[in-house]
Every structure is written in C-alpha cells, then in structure tokens.
Amino acid sequence: MTPEIPHGWTFCASSFNWAPDIIAARRTAQDTVTGIADAVVKVIELEPGLVWRGFPTPDDDEVDGLRTSLAARGGSVSIVGASLDDFSPPAQRRSLQERLSFLVPQLHAARRVGARGIRLPIGQAGADLLALLQPFLHDLDLVLHEEIQGQQAPGSPAVEPALEVIAGLDDDHIRVLVDISMLMPALPVTYLEKLRQVCLPKDFMARLEDDWRDPATLDAVTALLRSGSVPPRIHTLFMNLLIRFGRSDAAELQGILPLVGAFHLKFWDLEDDGGRVSRPLRELGGLLGANGFTGTLTSEWGGHEWLRADPTVMTRRHLSLAKEALVEPVASAV
Fold first, then answer.
1. What secondary structure letter does DSSP report for 281?
2. Residue 68's CATH number
3. Are 81 and 103 in contact (CB under 8 A)?
C-alpha cells in the first residue's frame, strides 16, 4: 500500500506522453487529452502546440472546448507549455516588445483554459522580458516556470545567471521547473538496446552501459560524434547523450529548492534494473519531504522517440512507481 501523499503535492501527466497518438490523428487531439482525465489522472500538463491548431494564438472556441470537456470529467490543466519564437521570417530577431506580444496571447489562453502556470526554457526570456511579463502574470494569477533539464545543472554557466535573475525578482509568480532527466544514474535500458542495433564501437557501448556518470564518458560521446562514425540515421537519437540525458545528483538541487514550484518526473522506459528509474525518485522524495515542497509532479514520457508502447499503460505504471518511490522516504522520516 502506497503511503499517504504529502499535502501540497499534485501528481499530473503531460499530454506530451500521448504525442504519437495525437500525431496519428485516429481521434481528435482534444479527445486524446480529455481521455487522460478519464483513464489516468485528473490534472494534465498541456503541450498546446499538439492540441490547438491556432497555437500560439488559439481561438477562444478551441480553448473553451478543451476546458469544458476536461471539466465534464473532473479534469483540469496545471501548466501550459509556452513557446517563445525569438525570430520572425526571414531570420529577423524580434524586438523586446515583439517578444512580449508573442507571449501575451499564450498567457491569456493559459488562463482561459484554467491553467495555473506556463512554462519556458530556463533563461530564454531574460531579465528584461521577465520584468515586462510580471504585471501580466499578476493580473492573470499565473506562474511562469523556467525549466532546467538534461545536461543542465544549477551551477552550469548557462543556468546559474538565469537562476540568479529569478532569485533577484523574488516573485512567487516566477519559479523554476526541474526536469529529473538531470538525475540519471544510468542510461535507459531500451535506449541502449536501440543503440546496439547500430555498429558503434564495443568499448564505447561498454562505457555507456557501465560508466554513464564518468565525465570521460561525455568526452567519448563528443569524440565519436566528431569522428564521423555515428551513422546519420541515428544522429537525432545519439544527440540525447549530449542534451537530454543528465548526470547530476538530487543533492545538487538543495540550493535552488526555494525557487522550485514544479517537477517533470521524466522517464524513458520502466526498466528499473539497478534502480535507474526509482533511485532518483527516492533521492528526490527525501529532499522534497525535508524541505516542505509544494507544487506539481508531472509524469513525462520521453521514450516514445524509440519505444513503441501504449502511453496510457506506460503513464499509469510510471505514476504508480513514482508515487511509491517519492513518498517512501517521506513516510520513513516521520
């Protein structure tokens, strides 16, 4: 029996988990999303580019339709994934005011669909745009979450300045979202199986399998890519090693937890050999419990890039595993 979930923790599922189903278009995107509330969990993090044809300026009717359909099933939206296109054709960088104008309709759509927040990549907005967004966020009662993930880490040169900006604003409407793809003790089993189907050097594969967190492994990844020995057909898959798969420890999050309002519980598959799925969750749960975290914890499946599986089954199983792993250290500490 799973111990009681701490007060203030809200478990969600990302509509991104169903991306292959939405793209296949066997039913409407709205029906796919509302089906999540029927079959998996009531609170959903929305990827609007997959759902609203008019995104980033969706029509009121399509926004209202999703909200009404979800409400009929007792469902709601937690966070909406916003987009900030910094360039307009032909490759002309948008001005500060143009960037604001690009985002504002998305803020209104998020509020209209009933979301409590929106999401952008860490540091993309920048201090000047954040300052302009603050009045809108307050008026609409929305929280902007800047997301850190994968190879990013709190102390990295690309992330630390953005965290300092957020801390300096000292505004509960601007927070951090942490994707636990940062916290990978080992690579996903099914990902390694996919790479084994390609003729990559045996010593390289052995390093990936046994020494993912060794800094020398990342050097080997870069060296192999630069050598031209990575077949072009797997370049996108291979780039996960440099971007989407992280090598940090949960303890590295301690210093930024006061800024964090949400987590993506990123998973790639459910093969838990050696605790590669559950161990980061347990370590994170202990940290969150000790620091009184409140916010959303969203199941986000990234493995459909190479793994064909039923997203409803995968997400149900992952949420069950995640709840148990996260709550266990909290219950043990009581």
1. H
2. 3.20.20.150
3. no
Question: 116 by DSSP, 3-state: which?
Answer: coil
Token pair, residue 270, equals: 């459910």
Residue 330's pLDDT band (cuts 50, 70, 90): confident
- Residues 6 or more apart whose Cβ sits within 8 Å of residue 305: 236, 237, 240
Both tokens of residue 230? Answer: 């990575």
Would residue 4 count as lying in a domain? no
Q: Are residues 237 and 260 in the same domain?
A: no
Q: Give the separation between CA 275 and CA 272, rounded to whole angstroms.
A: 5
User: Can you tell me the distance from the alpha carbon of 149 to that of 215, in angstroms, rounded to the nearest whole number?
Assistant: 18
User: Which parts of 25-81 fold into alpha helices (H)?
Assistant: 29-39, 60-71
Domain containing residue 215? 187-245
Q: Is the pLDDT of residue 267 over 90?
A: yes
pLDDT of residue 91: 77
Three-class SS state of 131: helix
* E strand map for 113-154: 117-121, 143-148
The pLDDT tens digits for 177-188 are: 999 999 999 999
User: To which residue do tokens 């459910």 refer?
Assistant: 270
270 vs 301: CA distance, rounded Å? 10
DSSP class of 16: G
| Identity of the residue numbered 294 | T
**How many Å is the maximal CA-CA distance in the chain?**
59
